[in-house]
Amino acid sequence: MAVLATAMLLDEPDRSELIAAVAAERPDANLTGAVVRSGWENVVLQTTDDWIYRFPRPGVDFDRELAVLGRLAGRLPTRIPEVEWTGTRRRFAAYRALTGATFDPGAYQRAPDHARDRLARSLAGFLAAMHQALTPAEVEELRIPVHDAAPVDQLVAELHRIPSAALPAVRELVDETRATWGAGAVPGPRVVLHNDFHLGNMVLDAPVGEVTGVWDFTCVALGEPTADLRYLMDGPDDLPHRVAAAYERISGRRVDLRAAVLALRIEQVCDRLELGDEDRLPEITRAWRVEDGR
Predict the structure, then answer these.
(1) Third-level CATH fold of 2-96
(2) Domain spans of the chain, in order of start
(3) DSSP readout, 182-237?
(4) Residue stretches of the chain with pLDDT short of 70
(5) Burial of residue 196, with CB atoms counted within 10 A of its CB: 0-12 exposed, 13-18 middle, 19 or more buried
(6) Are 282 and 165 in contact (CB under 8 A)?
(7) What pLDDT was estimated at residue 118?
(8) The whole model's pTM is what?
């Protein structure tokens, strides 16, 4: 996402600076041994006693995220962050960490079908609940933006920066994306997307288990359900298919996994360009051909 990629170009906050910001608000906070975790939308200070102090990057609508979390409380099948207080001198949110097991790709590859399906049903159940968690009136009140899953025009304007070795693949991507997302062929209706739904933003009850906690609601937006599957396309090959099948059964809404792949690839290219890292695009586009069996 362009605004988030731009944020990555900024200087990283110093750990001591973040600690000082929290200590100025809560002198009794245990900040010894706190570690910094840097993300696209936020920088997090996590303490040894499992407090999260989440600092938004420039361009992030911090107030909307807090409002969204407040409205979603109790409406989803998993735990989500419960903000206990916010900074007044500097904007940040304080909440207890969601603890549990992290996803283990190796364990997934060894897992039997029933365990894989259990994880997939859990992921699909969260998405089905998320996609209908806010009413149309709440969406309007909270000013939930519309997500552009395939910013083709933005990419076309930057084609001159694409290395020649990657340009044919990127042009093919543009054409195919226009024929799907641009032509309105991706199944709807628009729903409330989590919009940053990947296995690194959640904890499970086992390394290949059910989802028990999900965080990072900064990017919540309106869009087709397919968009929330795009980051799963970068994981185990069969998992998106299992999640898609479970989601369609639970929600009655259709998804398009090829469209999810295209949305992910468009985002990959736009992010590399925004970061000034276009030299990696030949490597990335070669991986696409392998994925597509070409």
Answers:
(1) Phosphorylase Kinase; domain 1 (3.30.200)
(2) 2-96, 105-291
(3) ITT-S----EEE-S---GGGEEESSTTS-EEEE---TT-EEE-GGGGGGGGGGS-T
(4) 1-11
(5) buried
(6) yes
(7) 98
(8) 0.93
